[in-house]
Amino acid sequence: MNTRELIRQKALLLFNRNGVMNVTLRNVAEELERSYGNITYHYKTKEQLIEELYTDMQAELKQISSSLLGGEDMFKAMIKAPGNTFELSMKYLFLFKDFVEIRRNFPHLSILIEKNHTTRKKLLKQSLLFLRDKGLLRKELEEDELDYLMELSGTVRTFFFLNLRDEEYKSKDLEMQYIMYTNKLLLPYLSSRGKKLYTAIAAPASF
Prior knowledge:
Elements: H1 3-18, H2 25-32, H3 36-42, H4 46-65, H5 71-91, H6 94-97, H7 99-105, H8 107-133, H9 143-162, H10 174-183, H11 192-202
Helix pairs in contact: 1-2, 2-3, 4-5, 5-10, 7-8, 8-9
């Protein structure tokens, strides 16, 4: 493992444990028993380090998202997505727990997050329009309603982690709570056929 990877791994552990605003590059250097200069040789600023961790998460998320296919397979992938991404969210937990602080204190990263958010919404909208045309979402849904759903989808996922107390992260049922919490958002938008298929997909996992 090269030095940059070691720094990212240690920083990720510290950010998740202590909060992003409570960790400095000097703290990372101390934990790795390296000089501060050695750390800043690879990462000039904390924002640069956080941005690379964010990019790592996006790369892993892209691999998971590639499972979206078409038709009912796409619908199934959408329902299963929270379960498939839960471990990834926990791995990069600080990006959700400290979302407000990150957006407020790291302007360059904030722009990158917004750019990725816009791209994600475009892809999601294509999927939602496809599912509406296939009769799995209510046919009377207007595009502005789907736009609203897309805005909510990212917010709901982030808010779930923001709203948890520290002790709740240890719950053995946390993943199931997350899946149920996020998938409830989609239910009002489903057609009768979509609801039946949702139940068929969700039932084996005891949603």
